[in-house]
Write a structure and sequence with these properties.
The structure is a homodimer of 193-residue chains. Chain A is of the alpha/beta class. In chain A, 39% of the residues lie in helices and 18% in strands. In chain A, the strands form 2 sheets. Chain A has a 7-stranded parallel β-sheet. In chain A, strands 2-3 form a two-stranded antiparallel ribbon.
Chain lengths: 193, 193
């Protein structure tokens, strides 16, 4: 594929990750898929022209649930009742692991970027302006969001770029993953002042 | 109150409006309260330091539902099980009408701003950069979000400032109100690059 003809958004895949993530106590867990997250992520990705949305879960029953949801809205009754949802959910993929997502989207090429975000400050984070520039240059890129209390260390370590936390006022920083993803995609891909 | 000591965010009230809104066919309806919207709005408002969050619904049964939800998380079992939710939901108010919201937050003063957003382009919309400046100058401000398919005309006409739609790619523009509100609050109040 000739990626040079694609926009930065179209060269980007977004991953909604349910494993490996951490719970409130910092233990690594597999979170449950929330169907509303799938809908919201699909609509935001579609709005910004993101090239692919991957729902990452190793649990087969959960994967089947998401596939049934996608089928309902893209081929079943919902596809005629609500065509905007069909448009948003078309092309959403369910995969077992982050590695499968990266393989499927062709991230194994030189210069590919894997970007993660975190609600917790840490070393070596970059600003959104820098993240935006990196996406413009990258031939392919992935942006991973952790459900529950965020991505576990093995997922964080797959990143080539770690974005700074969204600056909250005072110390409160407990955005829903749906909100954080909306804000981050707008900061990285949005247009207009 | 001495508003000069408050930040622009603290002088701002956000309204999640369930009446008057339009449905898919453009008819004016009262939408149902989605408890998840209340949670998400509360967490985003808390993150950006917004001065007040108002859930606007004329339906008494719906108002009681929201008050029970708030009570559970701020005084009931949830307040100890999940203190971040307590913090987010403390101070969320349920009111019958937009007018009640404006009265309650002291919007009847000179120079007060009432800001609305729309998914549809229209005349006299302003950019987010301009909206940000207006909030910095205003002694008090309100920012109204319509559920369902958006605010109905009488609500739009209460506005002193109408924000431009969030620019989506191509023609698709069907963001969930949760996502739109997250992005708009970040554009108007967010910090950092």
């Amino acid at each position: 594929m000739n990626d040079k003809t694609l926009s930065a958004a179209a060269r980007l895949a977004v991953g909604l990750v349910h494993y490996p993530v951490v719970n409130r106590d910092g233990n690594t867990v597999t979170s449950s898929v929330t169907s509303l997250d799938v809908h919201d992520f699909a609509r935001v990705c579609r709005t910004y022209g993101v090239g692919g949305l991957y729902i990452v879960t190793p649990l087969e029953a959960q994967a089947r649930l998401v596939e049934r949801l996608i089928g309902h809205w893209t081929a079943g009754y919902g596809s005629t009742a609500n065509p905007e949802r069909k448009e948003a959910l078309t092309g959403v993929k369910v995969v077992d692991t982050i590695e499968d997502m990266l393989d499927n989207f062709g991230l194994g090429i030189e210069g590919a970027v894997v970007m993660v975000t975190s609600a917790r400050p840490g070393p070596d984070t970059v600003s959104y302006a820098e993240g935006r520039k990196a996406l413009e240059k990258a031939p392919r890129a992935a942006l991973l969001f952790g459900t529950a209390h965020g991505l576990a260390r093995p997922a964080m370590e797959m990143a080539t770029i770690r974005l700074a936390p969204i600056p909250g006022v005072r110390e409160y920083n407990h955005l829903p993953v749906r909100s954080a993803a909306s804000i981050i995609m707008d900061r990285l891909l949005g247009q207009g002042g």
